[in-house]
Amino acid sequence: MSQSEQHSTLTQATVRITEQLEMRPDREIDLVIENKILHSLADALTSSPRKLLELLVDLACEICDADSAGVSLLEEQEGGATLFRWVAMGGAHKKYLGGLAPREGSSCGECMDLNSAQLYAMPRRFHDHQTAADPVLVEELIVPIPGAESKEPIGSLWIASQSTGRKFDREDVRLLTRLASFTAAALRMQDLLVKEQDARQLADSANDAKTSFLTNMSHEIRTPMNAVIGLSDILSMSSPLTSRQREFVRTLQSSARSLMDLINDILDIAKIEAETFDVEDMPFSLTQVIEEVVSMTSVRANQKQIDFFVAQSAIKDVVFIGDALRIRQILTNLCGNAVKFTEQGSVQVKVAMLNTFEDRSALVEMKVTDSGIGIPEDKLEGIFEKFNQGDTSITRRYGGTGLGLAITKNLVERMGGTITVESEMGRGSTFTVRLPLSLADEEYALLAITPVLGTSLLPAPDQSNWPRVLLVEDYKPNAIVAQVYIEDFGYRCDVASNGVEAAEKALGGDYIAILMDVQMHEMDGYEATAVIRQEEKRRGGKPLYIIGMTAHAMAGDREKCLMAGMNDYIPKPFDPKLLKSKLASLLTQPS
């Protein structure tokens, strides 16, 4: 019997059962597995593209607990015949690498005709290339590999189950579809489909993988960091503590915040490189921003007995339109560096409006001057490059990653501004930032200059009369931290550990607010919000105020929360003062 005839005979017992996927229970997305795949493939895509397909099928076998996987590409033969060539094989089928199989009458061919993922049940004898009598059925999931520019598929990625106990589901489909996209990118890189002018698309694929990896990792890292920072802050307020214990707590707080600063810097660089860095245009008080930065930085300056001067009378009571968060980040980086590299003397911050124009725009100048160690002239040109701190002795003595100024320069330029530096060794440095900002209309002035922090109302001493808050958090250490803060603010706090429980409690209680964690098991925060909003609409009445909480801290998180029906958003680890002000503002709203 020829290979073609044998293939046709064996596939006659193969049955497409794709519709069964809809009836199978949904499985939670496994971020650990997905991150492993994305990180490994992105690394291989840029370093060893020739080995990527082999890595891809091996990973597919591992994550799906399968004993065989492969990539099959269409190949035109002399005489017009179209066959599949097995260009990559994993697991038990590695020995068939390079083999050919007919397109017509095959499950891979049918999947390509339908141009969508398909699930098949097939006899195990076909799977094993054996002819045992009465074979049991196993499953095979096949995903078409897209052609360039969304043209017809050029092949397929398939995984065969290891045993009758393995059942594929929609999460497998989602994951395999992503792998198929990587497969297409890898093939283009190897010149099997297109030439190298397509390098931009390949770089984009690698960047997408890195961004996705960092998005997921930011959540995984920030979640425990929220507990570390929160519990250390709570512990610092405990009494009694010995002087040595207080020293331990201060060290823990400092180390935790240093680690969080490093995480934030790395994520900011990744967002900038991936061009997912958003700049907002909202009314704000620059005076208030400067006061907040000075309040944070002056603590360290006082510890080092450094004088800290601020001159900002020229912009007092002026309301601008811009991104207050990013401007605060710029000033925090510059002031923090000034204090860090100054052993004695002073740090000065001067802010002025250089010009105002008829279109209500202005050019604002912010100068940060210190009397610190200074920067050598031959190092000035590269001071804004990533991981650059002048020389290794600076890193050893003062610490840091060398990312702060690189991020600052990117932020300034994204807002249409410029940053320059003047410095003299042993006498200090001056960093000058010039930003074009718009002047806000009078209607925004009151909103922008209202203090954000410290506006809480004191609740009645009787706790039974305290306003109630529902905290939805599935990570117990974070729930403990948040609950302590909420109760210290003067609120009763109920806790729900997942979205299902949150929906039940929310609709059965009298809460002024719901703090909704976005990523949870069973039902996430977006789904829980949808359930609550749907039931509220059915019942009528005033909707509950829902504040989304997420540790992703990537571009678009706030918008996702609002689109899901939430009223507000707060990143984790959250600022206790910010959380306090958000809750307090709800008490002043008319019922």
In summary, what is this structure?
The protein has helices at 3-11, 31-47, 52-63, 107-114, 124-127, 170-189, 199-236, 243-273, 286-303, 324-340, 392-398, 404-414, 442-449, 476-488, 499-508, 525-539, 557-563, 576-587, and strands at residues 15-16, 66-76, 82-91, 100-102, 118-123, 137-145, 155-161, 282-285, 307-311, 319-322, 346-356, 361-370, 418-424, 428-439, 468-472, 492-496, 513-517, 546-550, 568-571. With 591 residues, it is α+β, with helices and mostly antiparallel strands.
For the terminal residues, how far apart are their CA atoms? 82 Å
Strand order of the largest sheet: 1-5-6-7-2-3-4
Shape: globular
What is the level 1 CATH name of the largest domain? Alpha Beta
CATH topology (level 3) name of the largest domain:
Beta-Lactamase
Describe the 3D structure.
The protein has 591 residues and is α+β, with helices and mostly antiparallel strands. The protein contains 18 helices and 19 strands. The chain folds into 4 domains: 192 residues, Beta-Lactamase; 61 residues; 168 residues, Heat Shock Protein 90, CATH 3.30.565; 125 residues, Rossmann fold, CATH 3.40.50.2300. 43% of the residues lie in helices and 21% in strands. The longest helix has 38 residues.
